[in-house]
């Protein structure tokens, strides 16, 4: 055996011994006191203080998908780095189990500078992502081979090879079956400095967030650090493409990274974060207009959350009644049977709201008696609603 091969075997033995004996990353080993102050500035100061002795401020790496193919698959996972102490202090009930491999999914331990673990799925089914999610959608003509190449090179980073992965897939998730974990031997950063690679500072927890898009999770991490959140426009609003210069400037300022208010609302709802839910909901409210109210009312996002539905119906009845009454019947006629079934609750509540508003104003009788728009629209909409209910019963029979 050559001297180089012998050194290689020694490094491997050292690495394997370290993997067996090491427990958690240095920062994660610190318990969170029950009376800890959760003010962002104080938490960051405390995390900095702890890093002076642990030697590491970043000890956790998340991956989240950033794109969606025309076939509905999500792919191209991108990395987000974080300090686990701050996360656990801000939301212990969620992050304590998450960072210990809870909730199923894919979790591993390895070098934070490594590539996307080969045992993690580079793409999976996009079920659960709303139409207005933060995922970037491909064009219809994107080739599957191109998607594959994008997905497998998702880390877009240089650095040491992935060294250890221990995925724990959830029974409730769909996607690719994980490959067998590979004991890929790490290459030393320098031939003559074996100890550098095995420094615990370079290792940490790596977690794949399958249910949240990259911009959403990235913005959420920033929110936990600062309590600042910046929301992008809804897809139903007129949007101007962002210039490359604007994107560069945004990356080098303290302005929070943007994400969809719908995507953040879904995340906050799932994690039970009431303040963040309210901020996302309030932002959605400010972005409603007569131009997009019908689009939003019949979106897949609205039907999932009662308070979002009620807020939008209130806006429709009070701020956009004329637009809604003139356009709802035609809109409903253009819905597919599946979308009509899905939107029965929204339609029913909307008609009740329009009827209540109009009754207060004495408008139903006057308009219906003279063949007016509102009365005719409500009558026609009720007829369409009955058809939707009948269709629903037929499907469920």
UniProtKB/TrEMBL annotation:
Residues 1-19, 171-191 have a biased composition (Basic and acidic residues). It comes from the Eukaryota. Residues 151-163 have a biased composition (Polar residues). This is BTB domain-containing protein. Residues 1-22, 118-200 are annotated as: Disordered. Gene3D superfamilies: Potassium Channel Kv1.1, Chain A. InterPro entries: SKP1/BTB/POZ_sf. Residues 124-143 have a biased composition (Acidic residues).
